[in-house]
Design brief:
By secondary structure, the protein is α/β, with parallel strands linked by helices. The chain has a single domain, classed as Tetrahydropterin Synthase, Chain A (2-Layer Sandwich), CATH 3.30.479. It has 5 helices and 7 strands, in the order E-H-E-H-E-H-E-H-E-E-E-H. It has a 7-stranded mixed β-sheet with strand order 6-5-2-1-3-4-7. The longest helix has 14 residues, at 98-111. The protein is globular, with a radius of gyration of 16 Å.
Length: 157
Amino acid sequence: MIIRKTFKAEAAHRILHAYSEKCRGLHGHSYVFEILIKGETQDQAQMLMDFSLISNKMKDFLNAFDHSLLIWEEDRELVEIARILNPRFMILPYNVTAEQISRHIYYQGKKIGLPIHKVIVHETLTGYAEFSGDDQIQIQLDKVIVSPAILDDINEN
């Protein structure tokens, strides 16, 4: 059995070393994050997992992306001015592509114990990346830095 829970976030980023000039510049996306949970067992309600349970476990983490500036730690120029551009920012240990965001969400879900089967990150209506743990590249979750504004929002909820 596979179930899916969808989340969304509006975020800005730029991609260092991108093929297109448009992607190298600061721009935004209306991201859609799909989390697919897989399992063989059902609970007393004959459900694999209640959708609200997935939301409760992932919402603070995924809300951190919303209305945030997503920055690769190697983008020194953007790291320097992040606080000026947006009080909500995340400094990440990867180039901020849909591929890497899907990997990040997958490993964060695994870290908190969700039986994640796959994560799909839609960057546009026509383009997405999906990750199901099928390679050895890891995201160093302990290197993720979230701004005080994001932490304040998490603590208020």
